[in-house]
Amino acid sequence: MRYAQTMAFTTLVFFSLFNAFNARFDERSAFIGLFSNKWLWGAVLLSLLLQAAVIYVPFLQQAFSTVSLSAGDWLRCATVGSSVLWLRDLSKLVVWTTTRRSHPRDSE
After folding, report:
1. Burial class (CB within 10 angstroms; exposed 0-12, middle 13-18, buried 19+) of 85
2. Model pLDDT, residue 106
3. pTM of the model
4. What pLDDT, on a 0 to 100 scale, did the predictor assign at position 108?
5. CA distances from 2 to 45, 60, 67 (A)
6. What is the rounded distance in angstroms from the CA atom of residue 60 to the CA atom of residue 76?
7. How far apart are CA 61 and CA 77, in angstroms?
8. Which of 24, 66, 72, 96 supports an S-S bond with 6, CB 3.0-4.6 Å?
């Protein structure tokens, strides 16, 4: 039970962190200027360090009812959590393509 809760909690953290990159632009890809915001990257790194502390520091494990995760567990959480980034970017592409097709160049 604690393992499943730890996996769910970590996956939700990854969802939130990846979604922070989506929030930068409503219509442009999250990958444009991906490394331009050092503050965002700092916040993501700090969040990951705090998440690791909650998972591996014994008194925090007890307080948050977490258990240690393997590298494979972290990878699964990150993979699932990143889906919010990929799916949102795909939806931006679909909207951009549809809008561009339905409204050919205004200058013509």
Report:
1. buried
2. 55
3. 0.78
4. 52
5. 25, 13, 6
6. 22
7. 18
8. 66
Instruction: With a cut of 50, list the residues of the chain below it in pLDDT.
Output: none
Token pair of 108 as six digits: 């013509």
Q: What is the predicted pLDDT for the residue at 105? A: 61
Most distant CA pair in the chain, distance: 67
Residue position matching structure tokens 């592409």:
93
> What tokens appear for 7 in the block?
């996996």
Per-residue HEC secondary structure of the chain comes to CHHHHHHHHHHHHHHHHHHHHHCCCCCCCCCCCCCCCHHHHHHHHHHHHHHHHHHHCHHHHHHHCCCCCCHHHHHHHHHHHHHHHHHHHHHHHHHHHHHHHHCCCCCC
